[in-house]
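User:
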Amino acid sequence: MSEAIRNGGDAMVRTEGIVKNFVSGNDTLRILRGVDFRIPAGLSAAITGRSGSGKSTLLNILGGLDRSDGGLAFVGGVEITAFPEKGLSAYRSRKVGFIFQFHYLLKDFTALENVMLPSYMAGMKKKEALDRARALLSDVKLDDRSGHYPSQLSGGERQRVAVARSMVNDPDLILADEPTGNLDPDNSAVVAELLFASAEKWGKTLLVVTHDENLAARASARYVLENGQLMALPPGETPNTKAEA
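Assistant: Predicted structure:
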């Protein structure tokens, strides 16, 4: 693990004692039990762990899609856990880029339109939004597919469009939840390479939740989430627990 990761460096992401519970009837399930970690700006981290361990829950808290039940979360030095709902909405649209296991592309829009739409809706001039979308599609090697609709693209190509779209609003933080989970090994390798290369090119901080050990190995730092706790893994080490698909 790099010295910057170990010491916190100039942290883009910092959490202190994040807690999340789920209540079902008279039972309370503690998913996150005081999670502390940091990701320096411009670097990457991967979180692995068993299904249901709380990986996506933590990602959703950092992305402003869910709220913690305790603890603090800072992104870019700003405490996002203190935001009201309106503040969280602005944070999601301006500061975070999301990539999910399913691409969520709009079927009636081309690849280029899918990428440019978030920036255009955020107030960017149409020509500027289109130019940026074209540059991002070029980064993920889809220059010649920009006019195609999602139904005309392969699964790997659709996910590459999703990678480009996540960066169109120039967010500080990219959150990727199982970005290769629906892909075969060959397409997984291509998407992983382009995801990390694009994040590095544009200077983005990248946090990936994954079961894919090959994808996780590309990150600057690795963690495993187990029993509600996040543990850092030394370089080259993989979790003892076998990740479930």
